[in-house]
Amino acid sequence: MSVSRLDHISKIGVEQMGDLADSLADTEVLRLENLDTNILPPASAVAFTQDAIIDDKANSYLPFLGLDPMRQAAANLVGKRSNQEYDWKTECVISAGGLSGIFNVLLATLEPGDEVLLTDPTYVGLINRVRLAGGVPRFVPLIPTEYGWQLDHEALQKIDPVPVKASLLMSPSMPTGAVFNQDDWQALTEFCQRANCWLINDSAMERILFDDRKVIHPATFSDMRDKVITVGSASKEYRMIGWRVGWVVGPAAIVADVARVSISNVVCQTGIAMGAVATAITADDDGIAASATELQARRDLIIEELHDFDVIPPHGGWSMLVDVSSAGYDGATASRLLLDNAKIAATPMVNWGGPHCEKYVRLVFSNENLQRLSGIGGRFRKALT
């Protein structure tokens, strides 16, 4: 029998679809089920990593809170995005990936039973981490439209702020690609003020934006500097998934608590990776703008090809959702048919929010180029019509 803390921890679906697609060993399968990418990391970061492998200083537990250059780079990066200044010595710690950082922040900010505001849909891994930390998810809907996902402001106004002790928000969001505009962030930060809660900003994809959108950081809003905890990652923007380096930047008192959790949890980060990530952050050309342009082209191709399906356009990020209910299927059934009949690996969105998420499949477009994506519309029609 499992321990009680696992009672509401669900599978994410990606692990099952990934294993199934791997087992086929078929290069014709479009790998749209997980957040791998075929867009290369910055060359300077790869070169740094190769040198670090034989650097004895990189083969160390120390320093526990991260290498100084990495902490400096992360604090400066968040400072530039938020128009704030952060002391890298007291207001930044390095984590073993972004999700490790988020879990550490949740453990440092929540008492058992505290509510956490999340969007619906959202990444089930975030929901699971809230529950593992003893929190209770409180969902605010994202509304699907033909123009993209929109925050439900009316529903947000109806949420009781008193039990909410943290808001865990991501823009662009996974799996929807929803991007909060100025009005959205205004409403969300005002909610956090009413709730007197933390705003945990998952910034893993904040610069992967489409259609000339600009980064809006929640700490730029009035009186939010001391409420925002930013958790960043090298995985998405810098295409450095395997390096497993993230960062937490925020007010000194809470970052000190996050540091205590961090040392008691994963202990330290990947030694040979931190210097490489610092190099990527400070590089003259980090490749983020070029990768966003490429990802937007892939998004546009998929939307065009799936014009007769119910696709909700993403405004950023690496993925989009397709509502398969109009074709007469739920997400799990559609996912199976797409793999069996069309060689498309796509994850159903079961448990990625409320029950309505069961009608969606997610398409990740970061790991397949335009040439391989061409013809995806025909594959969908073969499988689902």
What report would you give on this structure?
- The N and C termini lie far apart (43 Å).
- The longest helix is centred in the last third of the chain and has 18 residues, at 288-305.
- The strands form three sheets. The protein has an eight-stranded mixed beta sheet, with helices on both faces. The chain has a four-stranded antiparallel beta sheet with strand order 10-11-14-13, covered by helices on one side. Strands 1-12 form a two-stranded parallel sheet.
- The protein is built from 13 helices and 14 strands.
- The protein has two domains: 4-41 and 287-384, Aspartate Aminotransferase, domain 1 (Alpha-Beta Complex), CATH 3.90.1150.10; 43-282, Type I PLP-dependent aspartate aminotransferase-like (Major domain) (Aspartate Aminotransferase, domain 2, 3-Layer(aba) Sandwich).
- It is globular and about 60 Å long.
- The protein has 385 residues and is α/β, with parallel strands linked by helices.
Q: Averaging pLDDT over every residue, what do you get?
A: 97
CATH topology of the largest domain: Aspartate Aminotransferase, domain 2
- Bulk shape: globular
Which ranges are low-confidence, i.e. pLDDT below 50, for 5 or more consecutive residues? none
* Structural category: alpha/beta
Helix percentage:
25-40%
The CATH H-level superfamily of the largest domain is Type I PLP-dependent aspartate aminotransferase-like (Major domain)
Rg, Å, rounded: 20 Å
Strand order of the largest sheet: 2-9-8-7-6-3-4-5
Q: Characterize the main sheet.
A: 8 strands, mixed
Strand content: 15-25%
**Helix count from the secondary structure assignment:** 13
Counting copies of identical and different chains, the oligomeric state is single chain
Tally of individual domains? 2
